[in-house]
Each structure stands twice: as structure tokens, then as C-alpha cells.
Amino acid sequence: MKHLNHKVDLCVVGGGLSDTCAAIAAARHGLKVLLMQDRPMLGGNASSEIRMWVCGARNLEYRETGILEEMQLENFYRNTNRCYQVWDTVIYEKAYCEPNLTLLLNTTCQKAETEGNRIVSVTGWQMTSETYHTVEAVYFADCSGDSILAPLTGASVRVGRESRSEFDESIAPEESDRKTMGLSCMFQIRETPTPQPFIPPEWAMKLPTDDDIPLREHEIGTNYWWIELGGDRDSIHDTDALRHELLSISYGVWDHVKNHGDHGAENWVLDWIGFLPGKRESRRYVGAYIVNQNDVSSGGHFDDAVAYGGWTMDDHFPEGFYYRGGYPTIHHPAPTPWGIPWRSLYSVDIDNLLFAGRNISVTHTALSSSRVMGTCSLLGQAWRWQ
């Protein structure tokens, strides 16, 4: 086995849009940056592996600009057929062509060395080249979503929902718990000129009637985001079991649309289904400040605000697909935009650990607004390198 060593100013762990924007922004400020990603492409939930579209604070008056918009405008120009693999390439080359940025793809972060309250190095395994990479850096940034550096360094994290009384949050549950929002496997369909059959696999869930999927919009042209599981389980360690269950439900839903009742799907075919679930929530780091529901509702007027959110507090029920108490999420209002402080982007107990994305220092209720990818991208770009 090979073992290579790297010395940089900043090591970013993860490869979603927040990670990529963070690495590019730091490199453009003159830092020597290495980005370690365990997948073969960048983009995270926006990549061709998951295919979630980028949401944020945007409306008719606002949109996320900067590095994210650079990538999106390039994609509009070159990717006229909206091919996800071309979008992967647009994100990839933005990072690959940055002179101060080194990419380590297919590399899983497995180990971290610390001295006192600082991280000294991280080590990852690149399976494609059978090589261990040890990266020494001045700063480390965990944008992995699951906060992989937390269990490796002992950094403080939170998991689940805070009690209503802890931060005086009106939409939080009465008692705290470890429940989160769940995971989803996306799928895409395509219209053809002629009728097309669909034969589900034997292990697809049987959903013959509309009563089997109550209050779930499932006509052609709707979004199947509600095919969601895992909020009442372990959204990290149960991922593989959840993936199979999500695939079973996805095939069952499409079988229902195609073969049970009139849903206008006669000429439509299943064109793609994702085998990598998209996550909404897992570990959240504890920073110098924990943003809560009241901060969001009041507009986040922080003296050290460096980015903004604006998505509603879109709080999915932990049971996901199996929730039968009504519509599977509640859209609590949030102002557009609301400010996110610098104090919520660095660790309270690891001196050189930063973070951006869905794992920043927020309560569960605030996360329900800050977790979307447009907002996460701004967080990565917003770090202070001046």
C-alpha cells in the first residue's frame, strides 16, 4: 500500500456544494487547499448520484450569488439538455482548475491526529489508488454533512431535537429526543411517444390504493420528496438498510402510479433511480453560538452575520413515509433573508475546526431552514480568510 503526505493551509473534508465553495473561496484568497471527498464526483446532494435541485433563500428578489452562481451560469450555458453528468463536470472543473486547490476524490477520511485542542492531521484511504493520504494543515473544515471529524476528534456535537424549553422554541417538541429528518432516494421519469409497461421487482412495496399513500401528491409532474425514512432511526449507521427500504418504496410508488388507477402515466417510463440516499440531518457541531428558532424568526440580525438563509422552517416528521398524522412536513414561516453568524461556523472546543453545510451550530428547528444547498454554499464561501 502507498502512503502519501500533504502539507496545506486548509484541509476540507467532504465534497458537496458547501465544501466545494469553501475550498474554492479559500484557494482564491491565496491559501493552499486540499479537498478530500469520499465519492468520485463533487456536488453532494446536487450531484448525479442523488439529483436534488439547489434550493435556498431565493425568490423574485433574491438569489445566492458568488461561486454557486458561477457554476450555475456555466451549467445553463453548456448544459442545455440539463444532463446531470455534465453538471457534475461543471462542478468538478471549477475545483480542479483552481491553482491552489488539490482534489482527493474517492478518499474516505478515517483518522485524525490531535494535539491539545487542535487537529494536526487527518488520514484518508483512496480506494481507487490503494493509497493512504495523510494531510497536515493549519485549519481543518468539516463540510461532510455527517460531521465525520467529530467522532475522530471528540468535537462537541448535537443529534436530534432540542426540548421546547431549552431555547424557548415554540415549534420544538416538549421533550428532547434523538429524532431527525430522514433520507430520500430520488427517481426520475421520462415521457415517451407510446405506452410503456412497468414490471416492479418482487421486493417492491405493495401500494395498490391511494389509501396506502395518504396525503402524498403522486401525480405525474409532482415531487416524490416524501419518500423519506430514517428520522426515527440512526440516520448515519442505518443508511444502508434505509437505502434498500427506500428503493422498495420508490419502486412501489411508481408501480402504483403506472399500474393502479389512472394517473396519466401510460406513456411514462422510469428513467433513473438513485442508490445513494440524500440526507437532511445527522450530527450538528456545537459552535461558539447555537442559532435557534427565535433567531431565524427575528431575521438573524447578528453583528457577525456572514451569510443568509431564507427557506421556510421546513420540519419533516421523523417517521417520513410512515407518518399518518397528516401532511409529512410543516412549513413554519421564516423571513427571507435571515442572517447566519460567523460564531456558528467554528467549533467551540477544537480551535482550528470550521464547518459549513447542514452540520453547522444550529438547533433542529433552525436547521430546518438553514439546511438547503443554496444556503450551505454561501456558508462555505463566507469563511473569513482576510
Fold and architecture overview:
- By secondary structure, this protein is an alpha/beta fold.
- The chain has two domains: 230 residues, 3-Layer(bba) Sandwich (FAD/NAD(P)-binding domain), CATH 3.50.50; 97 residues, no CATH class.
- It contains eight helices and 18 strands.
- Helix 1 runs parallel beside helix 8.
- The chain is globular.
List the helices and strands and how they pair.
Layout: E1 2-13, H1 17-28, E2 33-36, H2 67-78, H3 84-96, E3 101-104, E4 107-115, E5 118-126, E6 131-142, H4 149-153, E7 157-159, E8 183-184, E9 187-191, E10 228-229, H5 239-259, E11 268-273, E12 278-279, E13 283-285, H6 293-297, E14 305-309, E15 313-316, E16 329-332, E17 338-341, E18 353-355, H7 364-370, H8 373-381
Parallel strand pairs: 1-2, 1-6, 2-3, 6-18
Antiparallel strand pairs: 4-5, 5-6, 7-13, 8-10, 8-12, 9-11, 14-17, 15-16
CATH homology group of the largest domain = FAD/NAD(P)-binding domain
Rough shape?
Answer: globular
Question: How many β-strand runs?
Answer: 18
Query: Would you state the CATH class of the largest domain?
Result: Alpha Beta
Fraction in beta strands:
15-25%
Total discrete domains: 2
Mean pLDDT: 96
Distance between the termini: 39 Å
Q: Please bin the fraction of helical residues.
A: 10-25%
CATH architecture type of the largest domain:
3-Layer(bba) Sandwich
Category by helix and strand content: alpha/beta
Radius of gyration: 21 Å
Order of helices and strands: EHEHHEEEEHEEEEHEEEHEEEEEHH
> Low-confidence segments, ≥5 residues, pLDDT <50?
none
Largest sheet data: 7 strands, mixed
Number of helices: 8
Do you know the CATH topology of the largest domain? FAD/NAD(P)-binding domain
